Amino acid sequence: MLTTDTDNKDKSMTTEGKQTKASAKSADKESEMKSSPLHKFFRDALKDIYYAENAIVDALEKMQKAATTEELREAFEDHQLQTKKHISRLEKVFKLIDEEPEKKECKAIVGIIKEGEEIIKSTKEGSMTRDAALIIAAQKVEHYEIATYGGLAQLAITMGHNKAADLLEKTLEEEEDTDYHLTDIAESYINLDAEQED
Ligand code: FE
Ligand code: FE
Predict the structure, then answer these.
(1) Cα(142) to centroid of ligand 1, in Å?
(2) Per the domain annotation, does 12 fall within a domain?
(3) Which of 52, 66, 124, 197 is most deeply packed, by most CB within 10 A?
């Protein structure tokens, strides 16, 4: 709250003085914003997905090697490249909200990736059953990302971080496209071929 005294001082300020005060005010507003519970949650959620995206790059490498069909291998390879872009977009988002990119262990993605590794162990190499199962494992990853990016993009809009929201929405679209593409591959022939295996 401004006191009358401060108001009087304000009136006597030069243009330069006013500008300094204005920038100090916006710095105040910024530090106020950065200490808000929602900002802290948003920053921590970004750290969580930043960790997850990095873990996904490694997981997609293993899934590529384990896949039976060329088509699924290519889908994993393409999405691995996209995932690297998601990482650099997140780094831009951190910068836009004036935070350092940092990883915070995401227990959910660790579990989902572990499930994928178990699928590789429990299915036969070169089988279509393995691909059918790998697609579902990959879609679990995509759905986790879709939930995260969808929610964070909305929060970014609410908090007035419009550029950050655009970046998060771009990634969201790519995760959704990947999810649809995996469904297409499964339904085109992989599930049917897997069903014939004994
Ligand atoms: Fe991603
Ligand atoms: Fe993804």
Answers:
(1) 7
(2) no
(3) 52
